[in-house]
Amino acid sequence: TPSDFNVLSDIVDIYKAKNNFEDAKKILKDFGAKYPDNYRSYSELGELFESMGEFKKAKEQHEIVSLIEPNINDLTLAKIETKFGEFDLAVNKLINLHDNPRKTEKQKYNYYRALSNIYQTIGKLQKSIESLEEAYKLEPSWPTTAINDAVALARIYIQMEDEKSADTVLNQMISVEDESRMGSLINLFKGELYLEKNDYEKVEEIIIETEKLIQEVGLNMLVARKERILAELHEKKGNWKNALEHYYVSIDAPPGWDWKPDTNVRGIGRCHRELKEYNKSVESLLDILKLDPYHPKIHYELALSYNEMKNNDKALEHMQIAADIWKDADE
């Protein structure tokens, strides 16, 4: 029955975790056929197709959801346009959604956050900052969300070589830590920013503190993020084998406070390339490309790996895709 959908959803999640997409798909399609007016099965089926890299089918399911419950997944339908390389269309849809006077502050926050991500992907860092600053004003009351957004904002400031603004955000994070129970997570966030600023000593101090905390208290939710930061630290130092090891640990760690699977895979691709394991580099990058076909950084890394393999045609193909996406990027 419709009231049992939560149980069905849990079963689907188990199948997805085991990469058993066919059984997950069958359960959701059967439910949709039995209860065609219940949007939830179509919504989950859309998410399932996205995780399989079948974005046309995903979009079809999300559009069915909109017919049953208008406006409930407008954000999803806007964001999915990026999977087809339609970044301008996605941006226009999000702006139109934001301008709707009936939207709540929470919805507007989500639109600004999505806009910031898209602008950052296509290299429009100033617009990304402007959108993220607007989102920051509408911040939900969840500590992890607030701090994660602060890190994203500080990262962009650092990319734009605006150290003063980045330091301001970092100081705000430190003040929040004094009032929050999320101190251990905030500490890791600070580690990410110190890494961006190449302050390796402070990063190492934070990693040691976090590892001690994980051992003493069992905060396994921190493992994935801690391992990714450690991998990035080793990579910056040119310790490719150590970096590769920690990227793989991060991917295999229990689900936790980390939202960057593509960062891990791009790092794996880079490390294999530096170790002259070019086939492994390309293989890992192509796998993640299936889930984000127009991510310019993945195409860029692929171009570099194919170039090392002397596959000039493939290198040029992927570099051209990246260049086309970044054609209006900030200099």
Would you mind describing this structure in some detail?
- The protein is built from 18 helices and no strands.
- The chain has helices at residues 5-17, 21-34, 39-51, 55-68, 74-79, 87-98, 105-121, 125-137, 143-159, 163-179, 183-196, 200-217, 223-236, 240-252, 261-274, 278-289, 296-308, 312-325.
- Helix 7 (105-121) runs antiparallel to helix 8 (125-137) and helix 11 runs parallel beside helix 13.
- It is globular, with a radius of gyration of 21 Å.
- The model has no long low-confidence stretch (mean pLDDT 87).
Q: How do the helices and strands line up, and which of them pair or pack?
A:
Layout (H helix, E strand, L loop, with lengths): L4 H13 L3 H14 L4 H13 L3 H14 L5 H6 L7 H12 L6 H17 L3 H13 L5 H17 L3 H17 L3 H14 L3 H18 L5 H14 L3 H13 L8 H14 L3 H12 L6 H13 L3 H14 L6
State the separation between the terminal residues, measured CA to CA. Answer: 55 Å
Kindly state the mean pLDDT as a whole number?
87
Q: In which range does the helix fraction lie?
A: over 70%
Give the H and E element order. HHHHHHHHHHHHHHHHHH
Largest sheet: none
In short:
By secondary structure, this protein is mainly alpha-helical. The chain has 18 helices and no strands.
Summarize this structure as a short list of keywords or feature phrases.
single chain, about 325 residues, about 75% helix, mainly alpha
